[in-house]
Amino acid sequence: MSLSYSTPTQGPHFFVPPDRIEGARATIGADDARHLLTVLRARPGDPISVSDGAGTRWQARLAEARHGEVIVDLVDQVVVPRAVPRLKVVHALPKRRKLDDVVQRLVEVGVDRIVPVHSERSQVQLDTARAAKASARWKAVAEAAAKQSRRAWLPVVEPVGEWTTAFPAGVAGVVLWEESEVALRNVLDGLAAAETVVLGIGPEGGLTADEVRVTGLAHATMGETVLRTETAALVAVSALRYHFGLMA
């Protein structure tokens, strides 16, 4: 098995836990195996892309289907270094299932960690059971988006939390606030690269001044145009990625 860096892989992309990778073979679990065999109609010898979700990706070939699972031969190992800074988005819960789309888009553009939170003006307040169900759905959405975008690093979706406790002291980042008079580009110019950069996004009703203050971060606006909360997240992350040279 050969080793390379950032070489593209071929075939549908799947995540396989490290404990299901042994030597030069990996086992794709039942759900993905069913999709691979029934929907994609893959056959022995077909190319498959496999990742452990922690930066290692393999070009593989389907070897056999056994007991509802798929065994693949690992051919070429590809090491994908983690991009720095890591991007973390703290997003207040929007109405209905808008966060499903937010999670999908943010994963596609390279966000590493998503933290859904209740905020003062959130119109959605989830109890423990509903929060657990929603978190499971968002994790599934994130994994599907990571497969589609062929990511080597599996993004993290944290359990639903609270805005007031989502920003550790000393963290680098910016909060979007419609009442800010500071342009996002000006904040980014003064934002030094750190291991992790945090972006805070409020709900449809916006953030209170106290909520902005409790983050300890600079606040910024993206101009006079009022963006939907789900659009604001995508635009701001794209600006951050461009600023830190992550778009190449």
Quick recap of the structure?
The chain has 248 residues and is an alpha/beta fold. It contains 6 helices and 14 strands.
Q: Can you tell me the residue ranges where pLDDT is under 50 for at least 5 consecutive residues? A: none
| Number of beta strands | 14
CATH class categorisation of the largest domain: Alpha Beta
Gross geometry: elongated
Explain this structure to me?
The structure is a single chain. This protein is an alpha/beta fold and about 250 residues long. The chain has two domains: about 1-80, Beta Barrel (Ribosomal Protein L25, Chain P), CATH 2.40.240; about 85-245, SPOUT methyltransferase, trefoil knot domain (Alpha/beta knot). It is built from six helices and 14 strands. It has helices at about 30-40, 100-110, 130-150, 185-190, 210-215, 230-245, and strands at about 1-5, 15, 20, 25-30, 45-50, 55-65, 70-80, 85-90, 115-120, 155, 160, 170-175, 195-200, 220. Strands 1, 2, 3, 4, 5, 6 and 7 form a seven-stranded mixed β-sheet that branches. Strands 8, 9, 10, 11, 12, 13 and 14 form a seven-stranded parallel β-sheet that branches. A hairpin with a 2-residue loop joins β6 (about 55-65) and β7 (about 70-80). It is elongated and about 60 Å long. The two termini are about 30 Å apart. The mean pLDDT is about 90.
